[in-house]
Amino acid sequence: MPEPSFPPDSIRAPMVVRRPLAEALGRELVVGPAETAVFVQNGRVLGTLGPGTHLVDPRAIPFLTQAPQTARTDVLLITLSVHGVRIRGATGEILDAASGHALAPRIFGEVGVRVVDANRAALLIASIASSDPDTTLRGHLQHAIIEGAKVAMNDAGKTGRLVRLLVDRAAQPELSQAIAAAAAPRLAEIGVEISAFGSVVVALSEEDMTKASAVDMTAPMEPVYEMLWDCRFCGQKKLLGLTHRHCPNCGAPQDPDARYFPSDAEKVPAKQHQYYGADVRCAHCGVANSRNSKHCGGCGAPLERAAEVARRQDQVDTGTGFSADTPVRAKEEREAPAVADVEPAGVPKAGSAARTALRAGCLLVVVAIVAAVALALWKKSGGLTVVGHTWKREIDVERYGPVSDSAWCDQTPFAARNVTRRREVRSHERVEDGQDCHTRRVDRGNGTFSETQECTPRYRDEPVYSDRCYFTVDKWTKLRSETATGASVTDAPRWPETSLARSGTCEGCEREGPRRETYTVVFQDDGSREHPCDFDEQRWASFSDGSQWKGALGVVGGGLDCGSVSSR
Questions:
Q1: Which residue, among 293, 225, 303, has the nearest Cα to 259 in the 3D structure?
Q2: Angle between helix 133-158 and helix 172-188 axes, rounded to 10 deg
Q3: Predicted local distance difference test score (pLDDT) of residue 220
Q4: pLDDT single digits (tens) 301-314
Q5: Last residue within a domain, chosen from 168, 202, 236
């Protein structure tokens, strides 16, 4: 297969442009709508600027005042979305388990990428002494995607899918998706993700293409093995489900309901057979026949409306391997299909008595929970008498002056002084940390079963560090609260007097801050228990002392639902 040709990278727009801060000071910096400007010094990010026109001056950009003036600072203009990043490289030899061929794919093409964490990309560039930051970033992108392609194709090779993914054009989207998923953790380390695969192709040499073209593409992609069965007439055991359609000892037909999975040590590959689907059972004599048959091999009856034979439930290996299955378990599944669950391989199913006890125990727990919730929510109507009123009004008094505070250094206020900083965990990022895999056995219904490996990604929380700044800043803070209270509706609510030292915006100046007010009515039920309820001022005043009302009282605990209070 000929290798695709691409224009040289030099004619493409750069992903990164680096400028020394010394050249930009005092000038306007234009950041495009799809760009971000990252300021880096000594391998750390000082801050970022979004799209717009910015005057590069410490008085306009506070984070520049926190950087030592003697160290070199660079401004990196990073394009956030780029199409046409060139990918070209070899994955090395990869073995396809199904065909036994070792192939050496090469990947060519272009991808679109998005920069989702410009700070990470900037730190990568700053950590490498290169005169061409654009080439540095593109090189890391290419390396991450090539390494992802190696992982994806190695996984495909282990499951026998490599040849199909490389030869079948319809499988190219699946291959691209697998490469993108495998490359994602590596790209995340440099703050980038794939947005489009563009014209990416995976090519083989002529020699490898000849080997791949000779593979039978109609064969199943996953390994297929024969089920076992025991003859109930002569007692012959461990007969093969596909090979032995009749008992070789007594000639009795195979009972499809007696098929069971072999242990790992007893597996026999099912080779060179065409799969037409699950067997069908003759309605007249009960013999199982291939779905491809027109008439029953036992009695000759037509099979147009014959039903499929029952299949075994999937076996799942939880890490201990597959031990021997038995016809007894197959019989249990047929007799109790409604309660049968997929269980780990080698673990015997509980008897019906144990299952009944388990269900009964679960039912009792559910009933107990429902009863407890019902009791907690059960309420009855009861009489109420108003026996008291209280009110409270508060005004916070704030003072302007120096306080100690902290913020992330890229969010430090301009007026901050006495600034110190330290590295702290700012957030956590979910990072893929391997996979959890298990093997699943699936009964294909014709005397064979397939084995597939199913994997789900495993993640860990990775701390993301940033600079935390500690500083002194002048601002308004709460100094005290002035309070006024009352104990009856005749004592009209009023706001307390506030004595301010001096007004204005100066160190030591004071002002009134937020106000709060609470109006409480105390009810007494027929059992002489008191229940305070808060209302707005107008409703509070409408409850006269000694007036009669009704409300919903809890049967358990006796609490009053204040929202249910109404006239009798």
A1: 225
A2: 130
A3: 55
A4: 999 889 999 899 89
A5: 202
How much of the chain, in percent, has pLDDT values that exceed 70?
Answer: 90
DSSP bridge partners of 359: none
pLDDT at residue 445 tops 80? yes
| DSSP annotation of 140 | H
* Helix (H) or strand (E) run with residue 476 in it: strand 448-486
In the predicted model, is pLDDT for residue 59 greater than 90?
no
Distance CA 339, CA 273 (A): 34
Token pair for 40: 């880096």
Q: How far apart are CA 326 and CA 562, in angstroms?
A: 65
Higher-confidence residue of 222 and 255: namely 255
List, in sequence order, every residue forming a beta bridge with 518; answer none if it has no partner.
392
pLDDT value of residue 336: 63
Q: 198 to each of 81, 112, 127, how far by Cα in Å?
A: 14, 7, 30
Residues in Cβ contact with 346 at an 8 Å cutoff, skipping those fewer than 6 apart: 320, 321, 322, 323, 324
CB 318 within 8 A of CB 345: yes
Show which of 161, 184, 202 is a domain's final residue. Answer: 202
Q: Are strands 102-103 and 94-95 parallel, antiparallel or unpaired?
A: antiparallel
Instruction: For the chain, give the mean pLDDT.
Output: 85
Q: Rounded to two decimals, what is the model's pTM? A: 0.44
For strands 224-226 and 239-240, give the pairing. Answer: unpaired
Instruction: Find out whether 342 and 314 touch, Cβ atoms under 8 Å.
Output: yes
Identity of residue 280: V
Question: Please, which residues have CB within 8 angstroms of residue 272's CB and are 6 or more apart in sequence?
Answer: none
Q: How far apart are CA 497 and CA 482, in angstroms?
A: 7
Does some domain include residue 66? Answer: yes
Quote the domain boundaries for residue 431: 388-567
On whether residue 448 sits in a domain, the answer given is yes
Is 80 exceeded by the pLDDT of residue 161? no
Q: Are strands 52-55 and 28-31 parallel, antiparallel or unpaired?
A: antiparallel
Residue 325: inside a domain, yes or no? no
Judge contact between 533 and 518, C-beta under 8 A: no
Closest C-alpha to 83, from 107, 120, 118, 109? 109
Q: How many domains does the chain have?
A: 2
Q: How many CB atoms lie within 10 A of CB 94?
A: 21
Q: What is the helix (H) or strand (E) element at residue 139, kind and residue range?
A: helix 133-158
**Residue 181, in any domain of the structure:** yes
Burial of 416 (0-12, 13-18, 19+ CB in 10 A): buried
Half-sphere exposure of residue 203: CA atoms within 13 angstroms, side-chain side: 18
The 3-state secondary structure of 187-200 reads HHCCCEEEEECCCC
- C-alpha 236/C-alpha 348 separation (Å) is 23
